[in-house]
Design a protein that fits this description.
This protein has two helices and six strands, in the order βββαβαββ. It is an alpha+beta fold and about 110 residues long. Strand 5 and strand 6 form a beta hairpin. About 20% of the residues are buried.
């Protein structure tokens, strides 16, 4: 596991079922990138994403970031609805290239409180 990974697990210490994970990269200047953000499908809609998002924000702020930014594929309707609810502003678009194809992504950013 990468040192920046923030796993969320069940409350019982003996249960290693991972509910979701996030990875916030170390800040560059004033911002940090939320590189990976996943909540397992069976746990959608029960607050796992919100908790994971807040923990990633707190980690980034503790490491000196003043903002957290991320990208999300425009075909991911759940993510495109989730991030604005969590206070992330859509600030533009970018393209992700994979195997010679270009995939449009929405760019989000959120100011962090230290």
């Amino acid at each position: 596991m990468h040192p920046a990974d923030i796993p969320l697990r069940r409350a019982r210490p003996d249960d290693a079922l991972c509910l979701g994970a996030a990875q916030a990269l170390p800040p560059r200047r004033a911002g940090a990138e939320l590189r990976r953000f996943d909540a397992q499908a069976p746990f959608a809609g029960i607050g796992v994403g919100r908790r994971l998002s807040r923990e990633a924000e707190a980690l980034a702020a503790a490491r000196g970031a003043q903002a957290l930014w991320l990208t999300s594929w425009i075909g991911n309707a759940r993510a495109l609805a989730f991030y604005p609810r969590e206070g992330h502003a859509a600030i533009g678009t970018t393209a992700y290239r994979f195997e010679g194809e270009s995939h449009e992504n929405r760019l989000f950013a959120k100011e962090l409180v230290a």
